[in-house]
Structures are given as structure tokens and as C-alpha cells.
Amino acid sequence: MSDPLQGYDVTISIIGENGPELVGQYQEAEITVTNELQEYLETGERIPRQLDGQIGIEGKLTRGMLHVDVIQRIMGSGTIRRGEAIPQSPRFTIETTLKNSNKGYDGRIRVEQAVFNELALYITAGAEVVKKDLSFKAEGISQA
Q: Dihedrals φ, ψ of 134, to 5°?
């Protein structure tokens, strides 16, 4: 019987157009793939057929804050104000590597064309690490 994967067996990185972005490994990744099923009720039936619908890929990354220019890195502009032109959001690849030779695991899950649609900063006084959560929506997902 194999042991389950643990956090020690997984690394998470973000790759932008110019290579690795938001450098370092993330503490947590949550990836959700949804299929918005469409119900079709045939004549004389009480139980509907489930037809494929729109597929959504989204998630969240959590990490201690390492860069003060996080708005520039995530949104493509360091200033976001009413009345100013805002560039198209940068696209990223989020790659999780699952590797532990002793347990027989070796693979990747790659989220493609990810756009960060939410940046949340958690700042408290004292010794706590400043934490940031990055929520994203993506246009693709693959296993390698």
C-alpha cells in the first residue's frame, strides 16, 4: 500500500512570459475544475439527463509576501486608478510538481493562461508573516 502524497512531496511555482515570476514556492494551492452541467428533462421523465456545460478552472495560492511591487507583478501596472489606462492582465502558468521517488510519485499539474483576479494581503503588527492570497481563473489545465 502506498503512502499518500504530503506537502513535502509537492512544489508550486508561477511562470510568466519572462520565466519564473513571484519567485519561490507557495505554501498552499487550491485548484478547482467545474463542469456547469445543463439539465435536460425529456417528455415523460422525472429525472433529467445531464448534458455537459461550461467548464471553469479557478483556484487560490497562498504565500508569505516577498515583493513590495506585488500589484505591478499581478495586475501589470503598479497604479490602478479611475481615469487611467489599465493594461491587459498578465497571463501565468502555475505548475505543481508532485515528486517523491520513495513513494513512486512523479508528475505535474499545470494550470495554463491563469489570470489573477484577486489579491488579498493580510498584514498584522508583530512577528506574523505578511501573507498574500492570489485567486485566479484559467483557460487550461493539463497533467504532465
A: -120, 115
